[in-house]
Design a protein that fits this description.
heterodimer; A: 300 residues; alpha/beta; D-Maltodextrin-Binding Protein, domain 2; 2 domains; 9-stranded mixed beta sheet; 3-stranded antiparallel beta sheet; 12 helices; 42% helix; 24% strand; globular; B: 254 residues; alpha+beta; Immunoglobulin-like; 5-stranded antiparallel beta sheet; 6 helices; 36% helix; 26% strand; elongated; Solute-binding_3/MltF_N (chain A)
């Protein structure tokens, strides 16, 4: 009898222990489980608007996408589909001038398109970022003799619509700003000798320089810059702050991780070769991401 | 005496004919019309003893003095003093109106000390208000935001200098400033998060602060400077950033 009683008591203890363990496991699962309903930014399907004509950043050529923005998109897609449970599609035909309108009209849920964060734009759309910082430089034909600001006096410089580049060019008083519809048109004008330089963000210029044939002889003028640093962010329509902040947390992990450096090195080999300190020049700090992400104006 | 006279409601006045004159107790009727029951009014007036007035006038005078010497600027800081003044005036008027006397009468001899005690309290409160206002006028914070002037280099870029001038009147020991930094070209740059500044009093390298961010307040000791106080500011921002600066808050304090 005594032995039977001890056995029953042991069995009860084991069952109780199992029940407690099961309860703990359930509690832990409930606590650690992500509270998402297969929707992000209020949608089950996320459209990401991108450029397709910027070598080094976002280029669609020979049925293949390449560039740093493209690499960011692929990592973002993996996270959105894997962690948030939404379907992601790419809409790679957005022009620089149409980026805000795409978000506001709902044609795009996210914009990953070398999209500079500015206080004016922050009033219209939210940003997550920056994921890259660059400065405005100059792309010229090899042997142009343009090396410093004084050399730009009287020169025709091409920028295109919907970018921040033209504003900064206003600082160069004696140069002539020539408009283009897009980056490709400006570079074509440069190759044809119709303009003396193309001015936009250096990462884009290095993309064009590395994409051009040697015979075309385009080069980025080292250390010739104008205007303030440009911080590229992911554009998000306003009204989804919680999802926006989750995306910002993901971006901080991405920028702080190895993917960012690997993707940058792979997308912009000419830049990394010419700028040994490319990480400190182009990689944003967490504080900068916090200051610009999901807010109506930059935080201090 | 009053029992001999008819009450206002008992008076009947008949005046016939154009331009006829009427005499009688019409004044009592008028009193009743304007002030309600004249007997109630008369009863209240009887309680407005002459001894109730001096304390009220004294409190009124002290409150007037306190208002006169009240400093300009942050009224929120002086709110409690205005409340003290109001309470003193209200309670002292209660004595004038007979409310306190009536309460004391109703409570019996045990509460006979209430009217003089209350009056003393009211006078002390009003005096406290005067002392408080005097203290704030001499040592309180003086908001000079609207009087602060900025002179700056144009455009204001990295390493740019600007001077904030504030007149130290009335004289205080310290100046507190908070500057708002803004992008001068908000359509083409976002430089505020990466921008800080150092500030120091002109002619005093020791009194300085470093790495101040937009809208962050700092305080510098004036060390006896009277008249114009010049705070020199050096801006630190990214190369190519063009910034604007304005004063968000400027105050003199001890």
């Amino acid at each position: 009898m005594k032995g039977t009683s001890r056995t029953r008591s042991g069995a009860r203890r084991r069952r109780a222990a199992a029940a407690v363990a099961a309860a703990l496991a359930l509690t832990a699962a409930a606590c650690s489980g992500k509270d998402h309903d297969g929707r992000f930014l209020g949608s089950q399907e996320i459209d990401v608007a991108m450029h397709k004509d910027l070598p080094g950043m976002s280029l669609f050529e020979n049925y293949t996408y390449s560039g740093f923005d493209n690499a960011l998109y692929l990592d973002l897609e993996k996270w959105l589909e894997g962690e948030e449970g939404v379907q992601v599609t790419r809409n790679a035909d957005v022009s620089s001038a149409a980026r805000i309108a795409k978000l506001q009209s709902g044609d795009a849920d996210l914009v990953v398109a070398s999209f500079s964060i500015t206080p004016d734009r922050m009033k219209e759309v939210d940003f997550v970022g920056p994921y890259l910082t660059t400065v405005q430089g100059f792309l010229v034909r090899s042997g142009s003799g343009i090396r410093e600001h004084a050399d730009l006096s009287g020169k025709r410089i091409c920028t295109w619509d919907g970018t921040t580049s033209r504003v900064a060019l206003g600082e160069l008083r004696n140069s002539v700003s020539v408009g283009g519809t897009d980056a490709e048109q400006c570079v074509r004008k440069l190759r044809q000798g119709r303009v003396d330089a193309v001015s936009t963000d250096q990462v884009l210029l290095y993309g064009f320089a590395q994409h051009s044939d040697d015979a075309e002889g385009l080069e980025v003028v080292p250390d010739l810059t104008v205007g303030a640093p440009q911080h590229y962010g992911i554009g998000v329509a306003k009204g989804h702050r919680e999802d926006c902040r989750r995306l910002a947390d993901w971006l901080k992990d991405y920028v702080g991780g190895r993917e960012w450096q690997g993707n940058f090195r792979e997308a912009l080999p000419l830049l990394t070769a010419e700028q040994p300190d490319w990480i400190s020049r182009h990689k944003p700090e967490d504080e900068l991401i916090d200051a610009h992400s999901c807010v109506d104006r930059p935080k201090t | 005496m009053s029992g001999d006279r008819p009450h206002a409601r008992d008076v009947t006045v008949g005046v016939d004919g154009e331009r006829s004159l009427g005499f009688g107790y019409v004044h009592l009727l008028n009193l009743s019309l304007v002030g309600g029951d004249w007997r109630e009014v008369a009863g209240q007036v009887r309680r407005w003893s002459g001894w109730n007035w001096p304390q009220f006038l004294l409190v009124l005078g002290l409150d007037a003095v306190a208002l006169f010497i009240a400093p300009d600027g942050d009224t929120g800081r002086l709110g409690w003093l205005y409340a003290v003044m109001a309470v003193a005036l209200l309670l002292s008027f209660c004595r004038v109106a007979g409310v306190v006397g009536a309460l004391a009468e109703r409570a019996g001899k045990g509460m006979a000390y209430l009217p003089p005690t209350l009056s003393l309290g009211c006078v002390l409160l009003a005096f406290l208000a005067v002392v408080g206002m005097r203290y704030y006028a001499d040592h309180g914070e003086v908001d000079v935001t609207g009087r602060a002037r900025i002179t700056a280099e144009e455009p204001l870029t990295d390493g740019g200098l600007l001077t904030v001038t504030v007149r130290n009147e009335p004289a205080r020991d310290r100046v507190r400033l908070a500057l708002v930094l803004a992008d001068a070209v908000p359509g083409a740059q976002s430089c505020v998060p990466a921008t800080t500044y150092d500030a120091r009093l002109r002619g005093s390298g020791a009194r300085r602060v470093e790495g101040v961010r937009s809208e962050e307040a700092f305080s510098l000791p004036l060390g006896g400077i009277r008249g114009d106080v010049h705070v020199e500011v050096v801006l630190h921002t990214d190369t190519g950033c063009r910034m604007g600066v304005r004063v968000a808050d400027a105050a003199l304090h001890d």
